[in-house]
Design goal:
It is a single chain. Helix 3 links the parallel strand 2 and strand 3. By secondary structure, the chain is α/β, with parallel strands linked by helices. The protein contains 18 helices and eight strands. It is elongated and about 85 Å long. Helix 11 runs antiparallel to helix 12 and helix 15 runs parallel beside helix 17. Glucanases play a role in cell expansion during growth, in cell-cell fusion during mating, and in spore release during sporulation. This enzyme may be involved in beta-glucan degradation. Active on laminarin and lichenan. Keywords: Carbohydrate metabolism, Cell membrane, Cell wall, Cell wall biogenesis/degradation, Glycoprotein, Hydrolase, Membrane, Polysaccharide degradation, Secreted, Signal, Transmembrane, Transmembrane helix. InterPro entries: Beta-glucan_modifiers, GH, Glyco_hydro_17.
């Protein structure tokens, strides 16, 4: 059996295993069905792409709202709004035509003049389309944001009630209702927000129903005889894990499909957050903020309300793409010459090829997942530029390391050592780092590793100091972290190596920032956040490679 044939067989076997793993992790999950595949009500905002409510000059086109309302009619008969401006007055017109109801919101902030404009606009909508309006919500989480005092908020609620006969309420997180119980005297029903993912102590999807049951019971006890509505509840389909609370499509579907019968059994009305994914929220809340919708930003329903749910409905494209990329990596690594004594070393050949193609399959899957993540995270040209740059860094690292480790099967020679980050960044002479000799390759590889090290350090510092809305960029840095750590630890054959006595200062500082940050993140995120622990392992792997590689020069090197 030739070396190439062994390699082909190993690739086909690992490709089959990779496909099986993709299939297994995306097996359909059975969940409770939503009766009639309809939810009671859902929050609606019309903004698409780069549209944002923060652009005061933007007005949503009526045709855009009409299209959205027609889509929502298939899953609900009610929408909750947060304002009546920027074209949102069209919603009640469309709702009336479709036989739907509107919870008309009034956005209350810190500016009295703007608050009055909001009140006037909302009440004008109520007067013009009374049959479509179910209730009026005066303010959303105003107390949470500390933009109004409870006393001033009471005055605003009273002023609205004096101008309409529709039921009036105020909406806020459940804790703020319990801290300001006197507000219940001013409203016709109490509207509370319960978001297990965003709790100060996050709640897992497994424990979310018990959490909701406890909070609903506590709120009902605090406001006896007062109707209770869950004004916002839901679960994100993408984003970072918070403690035990892990986003995901199956988790989102599970939460919604388990919550609806719970709400009915406890006799409370509800509104889900939200109808459509909102890209503009990623600016304020990171990836997770833009992925709470029943329908994605391209107006496709993300999961069915009946029947099984798959985490990645189009996983087979990612699987096929990953296998294809793995094949390209193997080709770019360079051909291995057949070992003339292959019959005597079949076991070694099988082991070598299996390790090589397994690494290629892992790299291929990681690069495809990184592409998928880019579409979820990035919000504009600047972020896309950096995101694509980091993806290219990962892809080039995979190719470089594949070629670096590849060689003639019979030689088993360790590649030339990588230069330290500082020496690579200095690039003493263009001819030297653009050349084809070992010194030029060492400089280029040092530059590549240095760019990855600086990028990982920046990401680690961000997650250590300001983690709330930052993702763990695991797929982005898995290849550089694992690849350079393996390269640093790779056993040497054919020549001796002696350790250096000192670690270069730039390597030491980077290793300290990355390794220390990894430990800090893992501790801060807590024992239940598995995603944080994976990220910490990536950081420690990178720190290991940074600390060891410069100290393992060839024998006689200073």
């Amino acid at each position: 059996m030739s070396s190439r044939l062994i390699g082909l067989v190993a690739f086909l076997v690992t490709a089959a295993i990779a496909w099986g793993l993709w299939s297994w992790t995306n097996a359909p999950v059975a969940l409770p069905d939503v009766p009639n595949a309809h939810v009671a009500c859902t929050s609606y905002a019309p903004f698409r792409g780069r549209q944002t409510p923060h652009n005061v000059d933007f007005v949503a086109p009526p045709a855009q709202i009409a299209e959205d309302m027609a889509i929502l009619k298939s899953v609900t008969d009610c929408v909750r709004l947060y304002s009546a401006r920027q074209g949102l007055e069209e919603v009640s017109i469309q709702a009336a035509q479709l036989g739907m109801k509107v919870l008309q919101g009034i956005w209350i902030g810190a500016d009295p003049a703007n608050n009055q404009l909001e009140i006037d606009a909302a009440l004008d909508v109520v007067d013009r389309n009374p049959d479509a309006i179910r209730a009026v919500i005066v303010g959303n989480e105003v107390l949470l944001r500390r933009e109004q005092s409870p006393e001033r908020l009471r005055e605003l609620i009273r002023s609205v009630k004096a101008r309409t006969d529709k039921p009036v309420t105020y909406a806020d997180v459940w804790e703020f209702w319990l801290q300001n119980r006197e507000l219940a005297d001013e409203v016709d029903f109490v509207t509370v927000h319960i978001l297990p993912y965003w709790e100060d102590e996050p709640v897992s999807v497994d424990d979310s129903m018990a959490h909701l049951r406890r909070i609903i019971a506590e709120v009902k006890e605090a406001f006896p005889g007062k109707p209770i509505m869950i004004g916002e509840t839901g679960w994100p389909s993408e984003g970072r894990t918070r403690g035990p609370a892990s986003p995901g499509l199956v988790n989102q579907a599970r939460f919604i499909r388990e919550f609806i019968p719970l709400a009915r059994s406890m006799g409370v009305d509800y509104n889900l957050i939200e109808a459509f994914d909102q890209p503009w929220k990623r600016v304020q809340e990171g990836t997770v903020g833009g992925h709470w919708g029943l329908v994605d930003e391209f107006r496709d329903q993300k999961f069915p309300l009946t029947g099984p749910v798959v985490e990645m409905p189009h996983w087979y494209w990612l699987a096929a793409g990953g296998i294809f990329v793995a094949a390209m990596l193997m080709l770019m690594a360079g051909r291995r010459r057949p070992d003339r004594s292959i019959e005597e070393h079949v076991g070694r050949e099988i082991l070598g090829w299996t390790a090589a193609v397994s690494a290629a399959q892992l790299a291929g899957a990681t690069l495809l997942l990184s592409v998928d993540h880019l579409s979820l995270v990035n919000r504009g040209p600047v972020e896309w530029t950096f995101g694509i740059g980091l993806w290219l860094l990962s892809a080039v690292t995979a190719v470089v390391l594949a070629r670096r480790w590849a060689g003639r099967a019979e030689m088993r020679i360790q590649p030339a050592p990588v230069h330290t980050v500082l020496s690579a960044l200095r690039m003493p002479h263009k001819a030297r780092w653009l050349g084809t000799d070992d010194e030029a390759r060492a400089l280029r590889h040092g530059l590549l590793r240095g760019l990855a090290a600086v990028s990982v350090a920046i990401a680690m510092i961000g997650l250590a100091l300001d983690p709330r809305y930052r993702d763990f960029p695991i797929a982005t840095f898995l290849i550089p972290a694992l690849g350079w750590a393996v390269d640093a630890l790779m056993p040497v054959a054919g020549r001796a190596r002696t350790p250096r006595l000192t670690l270069p200062v730039e390597e030491a500082l980077l290793a300290l920032m990355v390794g220390g940050g990894a430990v800090a993140v893992a501790v801060a995120e807590g024992a239940e956040n598995g995603e944080a622990h994976v990220w910490a392992v990536i950081g420690l792997l990178f720190a290991t490679g940074l600390a060891i590689a410069p100290r393992r020069g060839p024998a006689g090197e200073d």
